[in-house]
Amino acid sequence: MQLPQGLIDFLVYLAPSLLVFLTAFFLIKKFLDTDQRMKFAELKRVTDNHLLPLRLQAYERIVLFLERISPNNLMIRVYEPGMTVMEFHKEVLLAIRTEYEHNVTQQVYVTNNAWNIVRTSRDELIKLVNLSLEKCNPTAPGHELSKKVFETMLQNEEFPIQKAIDQIKNEAHSLF
């Protein structure tokens, strides 16, 4: 089977044009892809520069939250003379919940790991306070609850809030 001369001439002229078109297409595509990657990298850099201060502030607020709910600070701040153990217990749990709710939006700016540390610390503290309550007479003076909290902490020889603060600090330092 022989191709007509007109078709052969057409293919002879089409081949170089097609070769030039494909070369131009791939060069332009490569250029546009590179340009797009560079623009994305620049956008990420600008976003990171704006986001970094917010993230650092979130870590600061989380450390402040953990400091505020640490038994050393919490018990002194919440206790009022004349409170019974039950009243004091209620106020301590209310203070923990209020502090947590006040800082819950910080989870947007920190890693899931950091936020899990915060939640775990809060839950461990609530558990510690509740366990200490079980060892107290509900009508005893409120300071008895704080004594039991500190005794329980010393028995465990682990201070979950301080451990959490250290972990959060390490994670914040890793931002740099």
SSE layout and pairings?
Layout: H1 5-69, H2 71-78, H3 85-103, H4 112-134, H5 143-156, H6 160-173
How would you describe what is shown here?
The chain has a domain at 53-173. The chain is 81% helix and 0% strand. By secondary structure, it is mostly helical. Helix 1 packs antiparallel against helix 6 (160-173), helix 3 packs antiparallel against helix 4 and helix 4 packs antiparallel against helix 6. It has helices at residues 5-69, 71-78, 85-103, 112-134, 143-156, 160-173. The chain contains 6 helices and no strands. The mean pLDDT is 90. The chain is rod-shaped.
Radius of gyration: 32 Å
Q: How does the helix and strand content classify structurally?
A: mainly alpha
Q: How does the overall form come out from the CA principal axes?
A: rod-shaped
Helix share, percent: over 70%
Strand content: under 5%
Mean pLDDT, to the nearest integer, reads 90
**How many individual β-strands?**
0
Instruction: Please provide the ordered H/E string of secondary-structure elements.
Output: HHHHHH
The number of helical runs is 6
What would a concise description of this structure say?
By secondary structure, the protein is an all-alpha fold. It has a domain at 53-173.
